[in-house]
Amino acid sequence: MTASLRSTLEHISLQLFAGSMNYQVSFLVAELKYAAGQSLQKLRQSATGKPAFPEDSLSANSSDVVEALRDALSYERDDGSHPSRLYMQSPEFRHDSDIAISQLRELVDSADTIISFSLVEGHPFYPVFWDFAFVIEKGDDAVVFIGSSSD
Question: Does the pLDDT at position 130 exceed 90?
Fold first, then answer.
C-alpha cells in the first residue's frame, strides 16, 4: 500500500517540478515494520537514517492527513515561485491527485493512531512554502509521512 502511494507522489512531484518556477515538492512515505509505539524521534530517524528532533506532536485523525495532502497538492503560489501551472490545470493532475488521495485514505482510514508533528531540526527536506509530518500506526507497523515544498 505505501509503495503505491510513494510511487504516485513521486510522479506528481516530478510533474509539478517540470515547468515550475523556483518550486519543488518532496514527499517521504516510509513504512517501518514492527515500529508502532516507538518515540517520534526514533521513528523519524529510522525513516531517513538521520538524527531528528520532532516537536509539537498532536493527536490527529484521517481527515487531517488527507486535508494536509489535498492542500499541499492544490498550492499554487504566485508568479515568482509556483508549481507547473500546465500540469495543475490538466486532467492528468486531477486524476493523479485523486489516486494519491484514494491511496492515502486506504492507509489512514484503518489506522489505529495518527500523530502530527513538526521538525525543528532534522527535516529531510527544505520547507519554505508548506510542510506537514505525520506518523500513522496500524497494528505493529508505523508509517512516517512527510511532505514539503521549497524554492
Answer: no
